Amino acid sequence: MSKESVLRSIPQQYIDRARNTLHIAYQHTSHGTHVSYGLYGLPDYKNGDNALFAISHNDHQPGKLDFNDYALESYADLGEDASDLSRDEDAFIHATRNFLDTPGNSNINVVMWSWCSISYHNVAGTYIPGMQTLINEYGPGGSKIGTGPGKTRTTPVTFIFMTGHAEAGANIGEGEPKNQAELIVNYCKAHNYFCLDYYSIDTHDMNDNYWEDTGDNGNSTSYGGNFYEDWQNSHSLGVNWYENRTMPSSYAGSYPTYGDHNTQHITANRKAYAMWWILARIAGWGEE
User: Fold this and answer.
1) In sequence order, which residues have a C-beta less than 8 Å from that of residue 16 and are 6 or more positions away?
2) Average pLDDT of the chain to the nearest whole number
3) 220 conformational bin, left if phi > 0, alpha if psi -120 to 50, beta if neither
4) What is the pLDDT of residues 130-156, one digit of tens each?
5) What is 223-280 written as a DSSP string?
6) Dihedral (CA of 15, 20, 25, 29) sign
7) Residue 225 in this model has a pLDDT that exceeds 90
8) Considering the domain boundaries, does residue 287 fall inside one?
9) Over residues 165-181, mean pLDDT
């Protein structure tokens, strides 16, 4: 799902439906910019992409994907840090509830949180059950969806899970990124949930080779360099890859940039492709 060929295979009707019906709240710190910067740069890539993948930045506009960046941190409980999943272990649960229970956010129907470093966080004991609790409360048929006592909103929410980024030479072992990713991916497969798999994208090159010692930038000792930089340097801007942006190009202050911690555009390109694949699925692709 994280290659351009997969992106281009999505039927337009589902991209259109996602763009026009989904309202996303996304919370992250620096590593999470791989998704947002990739999404913001994609409309400038190829002919027609400016309309097909049109996106807004914290100010919903008709015909553009409603993308609310850094949306949930300010809803943290007093004394908690909810800037990403790698802070206070359960702060994301409280912040999400506070956000979704606020009437001004009643149209939000997709929520996604990103990790900083996932290493040694309580994925099995807090993250996965916390996400399941939120799904049970705010997902379709959730205990807080509807009208009457105890109901806080009428619009159900789809929650997108995430794995953590790769860490050079430190992916293997209990509590490290590979193990944590397996816990999350296996849970999502078992329950038919969506997951944006950072770890898989970071550790697989464009020919699907797996580099277990790689970091979050395509840097691998066993490969002997940086497989993403090498691929980008041997392919053409505007044909095989595009420049990510800090915001959509129609916004003041927008400029080309790598995803944070990257020295190439491919990582964020691929995470944007994966995100659109997920959004199209949420919008009904594959159900009919």
Assistant:
1) 52
2) 97
3) beta
4) 999 999 999 999 999 999 999 999 999
5) TTEEHHHHHHHTS-BTTTB---BSS-TTSTT--B-PPTT-SSSHHHHHHHHHHHHHHH
6) positive
7) yes
8) no
9) 98
Inside any domain, residue 19:
yes
The CATH number that applies at residue 95 is: 3.40.50
* pTM of the shown model: 0.97
Q: What angle, 0 to 180 degrees and rounded to 10, lies between the N-to-C axes of helices 128-138 and 91-100? A: 20
Domain that holds residue 88: 4-282
Q: In which residue are the tokens 């790769």 written?
A: 166
| Amino acid identity, position 228 | Y
Under 8 Å CB-to-CB from 192, ≥6 apart: which residues? none
DSSP 163-201: -PPP-TT---STTSHHHHHHHHHHHHHHHT-EEE-HHHH
The tokens 């993948």 sit on which residue? 53
**Per-residue tokens: 136:** 């049970």
Q: Quote the radius of gyration of the chain (alpha carbons, Å).
A: 18
CA distance 99 to 137: 13
Pairing of strands 194-196, 110-113: unpaired
